[in-house]
């Protein structure tokens, strides 16, 4: 291994999260956090994702469609070295531009942006606050979005997709007349992400609906100034041409192929939809290093498409999807699976020490890897939006956020002897449209007060980034609704129940859930706060590392309660015993969520990785596989054809599953707003009121559009 390779591997952080490198002159070069999600078509990338709740990790190597064979070969070599450095436990994935796995896409919530060129062409990653830009992005996708840089011309447009004209100081979104509501919302989020990360929050966004261009004459003037007069006819929409690998992965027949390079290495071929490589621990180092290349050779020999998914894993570090293909796979100390005894794979030791601030400043790549600009020990100032103005929050209440409010959090830290700023805009789920708009307006005022220096970050309730959580030292509390505004007499409820998640002070938070027994979950930790004392309740299948005994009003009277040993007063406080989610989440058969939709013109099932309640699309049917049961969740705006196709597909899914699933596995049909506990328990902090006011996507789209449009006319 070269010295450069060793330096790159030594710089790897042991903290959870995402780390990305590009291949530059056959070396691994860190990609700055602000550029995450941006991929040059002429380059190859290595993406490492480490989970916070365990020591497991995934390694992806991404191949741009115009990358060279040398770069692809170098990326494969570095992936093998990285895997060995981490003890052989990570699962390796080969990703091809335009055909990325659902797991890979899930890391980039605001979508993937494909840029022209690459390192060899002299292109560099994002230069924050640079305005010398002119590009056109073709945005596709409803769940996982991609934005591809195309020729800046009307000939690139079609009537079914969305296009972003990025001019540096202004971004104009043009919505095709046949694009749908969710696609428009996703595209706005892409535009906002570009504004916040690449322009430091100082670019204006405008939206034009292709079917109603007369309603936006000034924005159309901007577009035609750049592109020229709009032609009388644009291309018809084209369906997504990415094959649905996620659906195939559940239905394709799986077969073992014994390959010649080692009796301890195997290839599992899922009928061409994906290829998995299993490496036995007794295989030689040379054989293990060749596993990935052999898989690629196997794909060529079978004449499968070059974008066929490849996963490589080591004995003891098998992925959940791999185990999902075996009906009775067993781990550690049992003799099932491949007929040998398994033990948990080793991974490099997780460093639980605090950040070394000086080291982060001296080595910016570490800050990028941690997704932390520092150790979160800087100065914090918090304001709440009150009567559309800023009201300072008492420092004693820092870390407490109410779902009915919006907040501005200004974080100040030192770097190279200079003051640096990050301005977070936190938006509560129950905040009004006026408050969200006022929050954005006041953020601009604060930005001007500091001469444009703050980096602005929009934070939606429940989606807080790690640095934001770290600022509050593990004591962040999110109240579901209500407000902390002065003069508002909100009676304190007799009890409050919080779901606690996190492993360190850098990632812990408590989220309020309905105060009743049905909110409990055997897989999690909860804190029940009454007017007399606090109970810290933990389920039988998880003992939290963060016991959250610091909640206000809980000093000295905390009582730890294990599931099954609750005192009578515990149940009295919750209004009596009631059924709750008690199924043990089997790590060998993790729940899987699929979106079932025919909005592209044909019925497709697309897997949603790392899913949450927000991923339930009101316009579609969703399939949740908990192994013991299959749930079909029907959104309020799903059409009848989708519902019928989803029912048939659920039966086909069971019948064709490679693990030989019981075809009589219960299929449970439920409608939006009427979800049983056995369904909601698979989602963290389920919100029973989410759809009780108005359709979430429609409201969000309305709020965002009004916010981004405000002030744009002044620029035009």
Describe this structure in words.
The chain has 716 residues and is an alpha/beta fold. A nine-stranded mixed sheet has the order 2-1-4-5-6-16-15-14-13. A seven-stranded mixed sheet has the order 3-7-9-8-10-11-12, sandwiched between helices. Strands 19-23-25-24-26-27-28 form a seven-stranded mixed sheet, with no helix packed on it. The chain has five domains: 119 residues, Severin, CATH 3.40.20.10; 139 residues, Severin (3-Layer(aba) Sandwich), CATH 3.40.20; 109 residues, Severin; 80 residues, Severin (3-Layer(aba) Sandwich), CATH 3.40.20.10; 90 residues, Severin, CATH 3.40.20. The chain has 17 helices and 33 strands. Helix 4 packs across helix 16. Helices cover 23% and strands 26% of the residues. About 13% of the residues have low confidence. The termini are far apart. Keywords: Actin capping, Actin-binding, Calcium, Cytoplasm, Cytoskeleton, Repeat. It is found in: Cytoplasm, Cytoskeleton. It comes from Salarias fasciatus (Jewelled blenny). InterPro entries: ADF-H/Gelsolin-like_dom_sf, Gelsolin-like_dom, Gelsolin-like_dom_sf, Villin/Gelsolin.
